[in-house]
Amino acid sequence: MTESDSEGVRIPVDDLVEAVADRTDEDPDAIRRALDPFVDDGIVAAEAIESTVSDVSQILATTETRIDLASRAYEDASAAADDAPDLDAVSVRLERFADRLSDLRDRRDDLGAALGEAGDPPDTPEGIHASAVDLRETAAEAQRLVRVADDLATELERFEAWVGSADRRRRGFETDLADAEESLDSLSTTVRDLDADEPSPDRLFDAVVQAEVLGLVVADLRAEAADLDEWAEREDASFPEELHDRVDGADRKLAALAATLEDRRAATSDDRVDERIEAVVADLDAFDPPVAWDRVEETIGSV
To answer: Residue 296 belongs to what domain range?
Structure first.
């Protein structure tokens, strides 16, 4: 590796790619792509490295701005929630928003530290290559955090409007209930197909998991309906009884489908499927309303 005394790092990219490939056994094309932001006219130059660090710093500054906007949206939502009843439908939502905002801030701090390390790489081929990779990953993660912060700010604005409007709360509940009913219809079709054919173990497993998740959905809806009903009473209003009836209907339909699945499972008698089902059911049993759906998704994604 060569380096000028006054201008810092200046290495032909071909030489650097060869050196990194020899020492790490990584693919030369992948190394070249990673180094591309550091290259100026075929040379990996200190000036190009500094320019890349500056570009990533600007992206991280945008991330900081968007997280600040999400923080302000959280403050506004919290203020609105101060006037709402002390109900899980309100407090748990706000707590989860706070957790997401805290995660964003922690990740932003991690990226700031990573940028500092990547911006001062060791003067070795591996060090320069690692810096290029780290800066690319930092930029990509910073851009992702911008989207996450924007989504969070939007959700907080909707929450603030939801807190302030009984009509919005009712319509939001109706939408969630309709989605659950549609999912139950889909499960009903699946169960009919399983009953008519000799199901594969994986299809049976998927159907049982779907039923278990829908059980959480219905329980969540029932708990929220109770909270919204109490909220309406405190405002001398009423929550439509029809919505409670629809939740009851969804519960009865799910119970019938689950019983059919249990009969199908008993007739199939597959130890491997039984063990998988018991494991996921045990995991899902840990969730109570209000359900943390992000954690449910993680649980399902891991089975």
So the answer is: 166-302
